[in-house]
Amino acid sequence: MEDGHLSYPRVDDKWETESNGMELEFCNVGFKYPDTDRWVLKDVSFKIKLGQMVALVGVNGSGKSTAINLFNQIYDTTEGEILIDGLPIKSYRAKDVRSAMAILRQKHYSYPLSLGVNIALGCPDQHDTVTDEEIHEALEEGGADAFIKKLPEGVNTVLSPVRLSCFKDNGEENEELNEMVREKMKHTDVSGGESQRLAASRTFMRLKKGDIRFIAADEPTSALDAEGEMAFFERLKAQHGKKTVVFITHRFGHLTKYADLILVLKDGCLVESGSHDELVSNHGEYNKLYQAQAQAFLSSDEANANSDKE
Ligand SMILES: Nc1ncnc2c1ncn2[C@@H]1O[C@H](COP(=O)(O)OP(=O)(O)OP(=O)(O)O)[C@@H](O)[C@H]1O
């Protein structure tokens, strides 16, 4: 992709003072992954205002994560364009725009370094100036502090160490030293939910440093227990009005009801947009997905009455 020449954030009159988020606009965006023929996004248009909290919903494969990949300039649009703060995304230096974003993805990786360093790497440019206190705060915010305290080596634990081998001068492996290294390099397992808490902590660390204006969270709580999910949502809600937040979720409830705007994707098309109440009363795709979950909490009489209404 060609890099732009403008620095971000913009430094002209209006945008210099407007630091409470990032304005994002999709203008008739169409997208096919490289070397494929299928349109994954088709003629998608929407605008997200500064400081808004937006939910991106839709069934599996509807194109939600792809939209985040385009915000983050992992790929270029095939058709249409994306505007940031009123200008085409391509006119800015990609590094500047990415530095203003914190993206919490579905798949996250742990580097073969201590947990503390993994969290500090939330801000790669400044990881060596991060203090122990900041790491502990980020772990608390991501809900990872309790399980890390139980690990014998705490924040110094290395989850997946690199496998090392020791050789003698003659090129044969040195079994005695290998045994010592194996002992030191023991693999520590964490659960799916714990791993998600670590990824969230890395994102909260990123929010502490630098000028982050946009947060995207792709199914950030899919593996969390109910309490962990609620705590994470509260942390995210605290950013409302200060940063622009987009989250992808399959769980309809707490955060979707609170969102300023819900965008509903189906087969790569934006089929609905509005608030929770508006979309429920539309009786369209959102309501169908919402009711599928809500029915599980209703008594059988209420559920029957609802299905009669549909
Ligand atoms: N790298 C890729 N190359 C080709 N096709 C891809 C690639 N990544 C995703 N796709 C396809 O694009 C479509 C949209 O995928 P995407 O991950 O955006 O959906 P999603 O709505 O986020 O799904 P989910 O709810 O399952 O996470 C899917 O059909 C998927 O198979």
UniProtKB/TrEMBL annotation:
Residues 24-292 form the ABC transporter domain. PANTHER family: ATP-BINDING CASSETTE SUB-FAMILY B MEMBER 10, MITOCHONDRIAL, ATP-DEPENDENT PERMEASE MDL1, MITOCHONDRIAL. GO terms for biological process: oligopeptide export from mitochondrion. It comes from Schizopora paradoxa. InterPro entries: AAA+_ATPase, ABC_transporter-like_ATP-bd, P-loop_NTPase, Type_1_exporter. It comes from the Eukaryota. PROSITE patterns: ABC_TRANSPORTER_2. GO terms for cellular component: mitochondrial inner membrane. Coiled coil: none annotated. GO terms for molecular function: ABC-type oligopeptide transporter activity; ATP binding; ATP hydrolysis activity. SUPFAM superfamilies: P-loop containing nucleoside triphosphate hydrolases. This is p-loop containing nucleoside triphosphate hydrolase protein. Keywords: ATP-binding, Hydrolase, Nucleotide-binding.
